């Protein structure tokens, strides 16, 4: 098969973890007899520095055409003085998610056995943790009207019923393939959008009698995630809460550098589902350019791309096994207690795939 995808390295550690992921993809493609056709395009600060908009139309066009996107990260202090849609985050990442209709963002939290002692939590609390956060990605406060007026500043938060319903359906469908439990997280004691969220989720739940549904308020959820992480199966939540909770979840997994993500659309008119795959971490300006970034999250995102956009399950599993083997062997970066560079970790995993 020709694996044709759009590669958007972006900013900071994005190109570093991206190069490691490309090395791994090349190895797996060679091993399984595929060709790799990565369309490399600018996004974010890298695009701004090249005199382009944060999301050049040629970059978007490639994403739209291939329908499979591997993205590093965007943003950083260099572009923090920019305002509104001139910023990498607001001018590139959010419109890309919105224009590709990538409303379902899936972020897993299943700590590796080899990392159980790296998390600040006690091993006995952590053992058996295996949940997935289903984050709504194209609505809520991120996409509401925002601005400044005489009184100050405002960010409007809106959700429509269909927007909540479609992400809830994905969460319940996923729960049916797992432990049949959905925890919906909101702030319905204060927010009207959360009240609509809760009502809609309850209505969707009636179609899934086998799935157990519970509701938790987001403030309490931050505590429950740390005190009883094994309780959760599928966590369903809105855009901003999902962003915050998944960075918290990374602590359970031992590092920001190990959690991949997939953002998926419904099938388009041409029958194709679009997928964008990116680590949950950002451009990590504090370690960028030093070869210190952990490439696991990006490599695992690439594995998800193979599985979900190209149906290459054996290839994805081979990458996941090679990542775990590297972890067990201690072929890891400093955040996980090792001494390897980003590219060395990529090479160690690639080598396991060709051995
Ligand atoms: N998807 C994205 O493009 C994305 C996601 C999050 C943040 N950002 C952007 O990234 C910039 C920096 O944000 P931040 O510092 O709050 O978050 P961050 O995720 O970049 O970094 C948070 C901390 O985790 C560490 N870290 C992150 N990834 C790591 C990795 N792979 N290996 C080892 N350590 C890692 C960093 O060194 C830092 O100490 C901001 O401009 C932000 O908007 C982009
Ligand atoms: C960079 C930022 C806009 C983004 C988000 O909040 O969605 C990031 O934090 C993420 O988790 O993907
Ligand atoms: Mg985030």
Key words describing this protein structure:
355 residues, alpha/beta, Isopropylmalate Dehydrogenase, 2 domains, ten-stranded mixed sheet, two-stranded antiparallel ribbon, 12 helices, globular, binds nicotinamide-adenine-dinucleotide, binds 3-isopropylmalic acid, binds magnesium ion
The ordered string of helix (H) and strand (E) elements is: EHEHHEHEHEEEHEHEHEHEEHHH
Give the N-to-C terminal Cα separation: 22 Å
Report the CATH architecture of the largest domain: 3-Layer(aba) Sandwich
Mean pLDDT: 97
What's the helix count? 12
Tell me the total number of β-strands.
12
Quote the CATH topology of the largest domain: Isopropylmalate Dehydrogenase
Bound compounds, each kind once, are: nicotinamide-adenine-dinucleotide, 3-isopropylmalic acid, magnesium ion
Q: Provide the helix percentage.
A: 40-55%
What is the CATH C-level name of the largest domain?
Alpha Beta
Number of individual domains: 2
**Gross morphology:** globular
CATH superfamily of the largest domain: Isopropylmalate Dehydrogenase
Question: Which stretches are low in confidence, meaning pLDDT under 50 for 5 or more residues running?
Answer: none
What does the main sheet amount to? 10 strands, mixed
Biggest sheet: strand arrangement: 2-1-3-12-11-4-5-10-8-9
Tell me the β content: 15-25%
Structural class comes to alpha/beta
Compute the gyration radius: what is it? 20 Å
């Amino acid at each position: 098969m020709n694996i044709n995808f759009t590669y958007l390295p972006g900013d900071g550690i994005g190109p570093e973890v991206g190069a490691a992921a490309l090395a791994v993809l090349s190895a797996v493609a060679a091993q399984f007899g595929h060709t790799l056709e990565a369309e490399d395009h600018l996004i974010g600060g890298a695009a701004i520095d090249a005199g382009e908009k944060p999301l050049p139309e040629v970059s978007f066009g490639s994403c739209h055409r291939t329908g499979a996107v591997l993205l590093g990260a965007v943003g950083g202090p260099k572009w923090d003085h920019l305002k509104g849609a001139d910023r990498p985050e607001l001018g590139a990442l959010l419109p890309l998610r919105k224009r590709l209709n990538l409303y379902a963002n899936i972020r897993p939290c299943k700590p590796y056995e080899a990392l159980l002692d790296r998390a600040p939590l006690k091993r006995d609390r952590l053992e058996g943790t295996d949940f997935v956060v289903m984050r709504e990605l194209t609505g809520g406060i991120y996409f509401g009207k925002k601005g400044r007026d005489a009184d100050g500043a405002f960010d409007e938060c809106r959700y429509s019923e269909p927007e909540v319903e479609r992400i809830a359906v994905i969460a319940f469908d996923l729960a049916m393939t797992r432990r049949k439990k959905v925890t919906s997280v909101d702030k319905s004691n204060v927010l009207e959008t959360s009240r609509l969220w809760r009502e809609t989720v309850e209505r969707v739940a009636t179609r899934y009698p086998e799935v157990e549904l519970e509701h938790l308020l987001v403030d309490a959820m931050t505590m429950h995630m740390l005190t009883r992480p094994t309780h959760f199966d599928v966590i369903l939540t809105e855009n901003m809460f999902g962003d915050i909770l998944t960075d918290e979840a990374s602590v359970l997994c031992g590092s920001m550098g190990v959690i991949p993500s997939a953002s998926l659309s419904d099938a388009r008119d041409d029958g194709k589902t679009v997928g964008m795959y990116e680590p949950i971490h950002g451009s990590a300006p504090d370690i960028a350019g030093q070869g210190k970034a952990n490439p696991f999250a990006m490599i695992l995102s690439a594995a998800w791309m193979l599985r979900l956009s190209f149906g290459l399950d054996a290839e994805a599993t081979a990458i996941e096994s090679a990542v775990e083997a590297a972890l067990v062997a201690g072929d890891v970066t400093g955040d996980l207690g090792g001494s390897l560079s980003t590219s060395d970790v990529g090479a160690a995993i690639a080598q396991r795939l060709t051995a």
